[in-house]
Amino acid sequence: MLTGTIVNTATVILGSLIGLSLGNILPERLRDTVMKGLGLCTMFIGVTGMLGGENALITIISIAVGAAVGELLDLDGRLDRFAARLEKKFQKPGGKTSLAEGFITASLVFCVGTMTIVGALNDGLSGNHEMLFTKSVLDFVSSMIFASSLGIGVLLAAGAVFVIQGSIACLAGLLAPLLQQGNTIEEMTVVGSVLILGLGLNLIGVTKLKVMNYVPAIFLPILLCLFM
What we know:
mainly alpha
């Protein structure tokens, strides 16, 4: 049942390790330029993903309520404190890139979108791994590029891929009826794409959004699509 998820996780780990090796030999100026280029690409992914929804009100409500929930739970602060503990173990002294930044960036790019949700459902319901295998190839390339600029946090995002996709696959029987209501998957993708756009703005230095605090918004369309 988890074959697709395991392969996807493995490709993220392999791509990240290659990217980390490249990052050690690339000059800082080049890494900074590459990271800003990735920010532009991330914004492109966000904008294209935002075009698939049909009910803008669902996106607005999801972002507003999700942001309030995330702020009250202080998800960004909790992640930063968790990342600080990890940095003591994994990050070399004097590292230029925040482990949390790499982890959040990679986790959102790898775990938000139609391929994640539908691929994991197919993985769990029918044993069809084709979509996740395709996603694995894309994530391999992305993880290699991200890790070369954002560091070891990208490697740790492999854990998020395994947990999130694996959870969807394992709970596929329960989640499928909810996700198949109306345009639930499409609306979740739109909300997630708004977050990815914000992430891209952070990467190019335009904003300093606490993107993690907005993550609960991704799941609200599951409820909203039942009534709207």
